[in-house]
Amino acid sequence: MHAEEREKLILDAMHATGFISYRDLEARLDASPATIRRDLTRLEEAGHILRVHGGAKLPDADRSGDVPGLSGTPFEQAITEHLPAKQAIGRAAAALCAPGEGIMMDGGTTTLQMCTHLGGMGLQVLTNSLHIVDALLAQRDTRVLLPSGTVFREQKIVLAPAGEASMPRFHAPKLFMGAAAVGPQGAMQQDVILVAAERRLIDRAETVILMVDSSKFKSSSGAIVCGLEEIDVLITDPGIPQAMRETLAEAGIKLIIASEMPD
């Protein structure tokens, strides 16, 4: 494949969200990592892209007039699936928080299960999920921050156009995030619109904590949010396949198994 063909494929792949990860590029292009880096360098020098941590984005892309819906399982349905496992994972994740610190939480049904365990800790929480905002507002000592952007009604998530500065000036060492699927290639989402938003959070985090129940460890196609090398901790339930345990260990990821217990 010629360089011009690869560059066109790169730009076409970035059109939907304004961002693409290195892992996604490696999966799409029949080229070595060094070749891909050279392609990105040429595109950046030409002003077509900006290279950022974990991939590349379109410069100052403005898609504010384009507000598609999100694909995947509706939130109200997903929240009932594998609920005991998600509750145990949420409890284990909350135990990783230190009183008074700042954290980030993405808008997943598993991260939502953390909220009931965060009261009394005096946390500052940055989230793009209105479900999580609702759950935290009753906690008088929890400070809640939202990014700017458009509200996606079905998922109650706030998303900004790719390339738009939407995050408040806020330092949070830990990011708690979910995924639609997890495999050797990394964490994936079913909708590419979510990728750029989650990349914004990942790029600001010192520690990335992935929260997924064991049903997410399956062969699946999707937009790659991050490779395993970007994940520091993974919290799941005892149903995780042995092969995936070994893959996570090889990647140096700390694995926490959350057992289901009555509240």
TrEMBL record:
Location of the HTH deoR-type domain: 3-58
Keyword Zinc-finger among UniProt keywords: no
UniProt keywords, alphabetically: DNA-binding, Transcription, Transcription regulation
Keyword DNA-binding: yes
Signal sequence, renumbered to the chain: none
SUPFAM superfamilies per UniProt: NagB/RpiA/CoA transferase-like, Winged helix' DNA-binding domain
InterPro entries in alphabetical order: Carb_Metab_HTH_regulators, DeoR-like_C, DeoR_HTH, NagB/RpiA_transferase-like, Tscrpt_reg_HTH_DeoR_CS, WH-like_DNA-bd_sf, WH_DNA-bd_sf
Single Gene Ontology MF annotation: DNA binding
Entry-linked Pfam families: DeoRC, HTH_DeoR
Name recorded for this polypeptide: DeoR/GlpR family DNA-binding transcription regulator
Protein species of origin: Novosphingobium album (ex Hu et al. 2023)
